[in-house]
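for the recovery benchmark. tokens below, seq after
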């Protein structure tokens, strides 16, 4: 990790109001099971101090979460586009409902199982950004479309379009489809230009499919360091998809959806003509990876959104100079890098390379920790971290205000 970037991010975190508290060793630690019991009894554990939670625990600062949602919505509205947030980040229907309530036109999901969970919790405007290519998934997708009128799925090959058309016909429905256009990463998507146009025409001619437009996600630009470089690469890579959309429009095809982009490019994507909505996901939580990329007004730190997601952890061992051991290792934090950041402190680093244990190392540290003390970590990469937990505690004024099940946790098929 770049030292200057690390220091800058820590200053940013400290300046954002993050504080740590000394916790008496006798404080009660409510387990996840106990919190779920309180929830089932209607109490939801409301009013419990966050420092009372047993660890590791996943927390979200509700004030920061609200500000992040509002900030993105204000920017996309100003830029004349919409937001279609990616729920793969939070996997939580309650957070998706917050996004929809503040102006998002729908949500994205990466997996069919995520779409099924979201729909089962009352969410109807769902765009699945990953193509379904196996028979079981195609059949499940059509069953979901039969119940969920707002379900849209992606396609990026002629063979897949034919399979979708046959399955939709057998199900007695018309399935909504967007053509996934490759942004040049060659991960998913059909080649832009003529190949994408021809696929769109095939979809449009099928009586059991309804063409809605295109999507083009440029994942390679999201974490590019430096705003000007990120902008240049993003617009360069989206240009071919933009030209494809123009070709479709000139051919009389539907281009009502031109969806893509993400947290790193949410204030850039709109510059591509025809672009309709951004699929930002991590903006609600932020993480160490995104904090490092720099923003339009700060080359070192991406400060457009506040880091709202933290892991609460407890110090287990502090007997050796220069270091301490916590209960949040790889199974709580993942091994994504850069490593988590100790919230509100400077002069220390954190690693989560051990399965069960994390390590704090002191280097001119602002403080040291004793056994039993708790601290919060800004996560390394929010998406996989969320998938490690059953629930997320919504915190306001250091107290639990919400207990949200991560209903789509483990939904990977």
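predicted aa per position
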């Amino acid at each position: 990790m770049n030292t200057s970037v690390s220091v800058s991010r820590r200053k940013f975190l400290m300046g954002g109001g993050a504080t740590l508290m000394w916790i008496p060793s006798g404080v009660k630690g409510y387990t996840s099971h106990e919190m779920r019991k309180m929830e089932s009894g209607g109490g939801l554990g409301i009013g419990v101090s966050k420092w009372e939670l047993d660890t590791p625990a996943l927390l979200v600062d509700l004030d920061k979460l609200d500000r992040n949602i509002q900030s993105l919505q204000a920017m996309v509205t100003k830029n004349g586009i919409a937001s279609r947030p990616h729920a793969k980040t939070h996997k939580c229907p309650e957070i998706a409902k917050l996004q929809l309530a503040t102006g998002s036109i729908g949500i994205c999901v990466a997996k069919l199982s995520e779409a099924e969970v979201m729909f089962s919790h009352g969410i109807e405007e769902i765009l699945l950004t990953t193509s379904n290519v196996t028979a079981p998934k195609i059949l499940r997708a059509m069953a979901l479309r039969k119940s969920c009128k707002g379900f849209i799925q992606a396609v990026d090959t002629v063979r897949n379009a034919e399979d979708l058309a046959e399955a939709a016909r057998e199900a007695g429905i018309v399935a909504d489809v967007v053509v996934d256009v490759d942004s040049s990463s060659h991960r998913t998507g059909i080649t832009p230009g003529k190949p994408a146009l021809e696929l769109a025409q095939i979809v449009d001619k099928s009586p059991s499919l309804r063409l809605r437009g295109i999507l083009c996600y440029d994942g390679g630009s999201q974490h590019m360091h430096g705003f000007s470089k990120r902008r240049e690469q993003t617009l360069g890579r989206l240009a071919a998809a933009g030209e494809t959309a123009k070709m479709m429009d000139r051919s009389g095809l539907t281009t009502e959806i031109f969806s893509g982009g993400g947290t790193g490019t949410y204030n850039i994507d709109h510059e591509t003509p025809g672009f309709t909505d951004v699929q930002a996901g991590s903006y609600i939580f932020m993480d160490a990876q995104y904090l490092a990329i720099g923003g339009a007004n700060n080359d070192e730190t991406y400060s457009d959104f506040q880091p709202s997601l933290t892991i609460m952890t407890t110090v287990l061992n502090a007997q050796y100079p220069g270091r301490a051991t916590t209960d949040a290792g790889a199974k709580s934090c993942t091994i994504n890098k850069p490593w988590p950041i100790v919230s509100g402190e400077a002069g220390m680093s954190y690693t989560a390379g051990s399965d069960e244990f994390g390590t704090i190392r002191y280097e001119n540290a602002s403080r040291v920790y004793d056994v039993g003390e708790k601290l919060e970590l800004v996560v390394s990469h929010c998406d996989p971290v969320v998938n490690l937990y059953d629930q997320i505690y919504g915190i306001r004024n250091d107290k639990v205000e919400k207990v949200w099940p991560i209903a789509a946790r483990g939904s990977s098929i």
